[in-house]
């Protein structure tokens, strides 16, 4: 029987390296591909070991040599600039807080790489994400949380659809991170203990404020910091330099700690309040994608996560019209932020998700 070909997205880290090793052992014809996304951080720091760096390309190539599989580097710079960097800057310019990793997964690592993989005659694309793909009795593909709750990455993958899920493999969803490193040692992979990359790969030194000042200075217009009643308490250097829930760096002396509770680009104001004011009971989400269902036809109950690494809150999700939903939480949630994603769960199964466009019912 002819082996099924798999293109494994290899960043040079332990997760994608072990993914390639596991699939090779399972009998797949594995090809390692490293995606060239951006040179911006590399130019600023030639020693950087993030997913876009030259050293990571070398690490991926070395792993492929050890495994005895071919390795290719593919250029996705133009797509990455359009779909990730331009989006990143545009969202900040309108007072939102973007999630570039989700955009990269959606447009580049999944849609873009899948297209290239199919051209190479591959049946699947494999990634090192900690999430699981299963099929139910009716044949519908489901996206589920990884078994390691601390590493689960299903939140960042809610955009996948039935046609793309049919072509993706994520073997690490069944493992903990500790087990991943143990297995990498057993396979004698030189990246077994390589630290995880935590930074935005194209932002030098992970300093998004300096990046905005350099790339989008026209969106940074000085203005007022006001309380919820509109009283001027201080001044800011540009609304996009702040984010919901921020406490430090406000430069305001007050008897109680103040937090950013809203950003108003139209009035060029940063709005602050007390710690309770950061909580809200609802949100509006758009740009929706459904996985476990075809569409939302009426209100449902679900657990909703509004930021990666944050615990979910029980909520009612109802159609709002014009491709949007209204989410009303049982208990107020902290720092609901436009531009981030709201992802809906039924237990460990991703129902779907969308982009937070607005916040409702501040406490």
Would you give an account of this structure?
The chain has 363 residues and is of the alpha/beta class. The chain is 25% helix and 31% strand. The chain contains eight helices and 17 strands. It has helices at 14-25, 40-44, 54-67, 77-93, 100-119, 162-165, 177-186, 208-215; strands spanning 5-9, 29-36, 71-75, 124-126, 131-135, 141-145, 168-169, 223-227, 232-236, 259-264, 269-273, 279-290, 300-305, 313-321, 324-334, 341-346, 349-362. A hairpin with a 2-residue loop joins strand 14 and strand 15.
Rounded radius of gyration (Å): 22 Å
Please give the order of strands in the largest beta sheet.
12-15-14-13-16-17
Number of strands: 17
User: How do the helices and strands follow one another from N- to C-terminus?
Assistant: EHEHHEHHEEEHEHHEEEEEEEEEE
**Mean of pLDDT:** 92
Q: In whole angstroms, how far apart are the ends?
A: 62 Å
Structural class: alpha/beta
Q: How helical, in percent, are the residues?
A: 10-25%
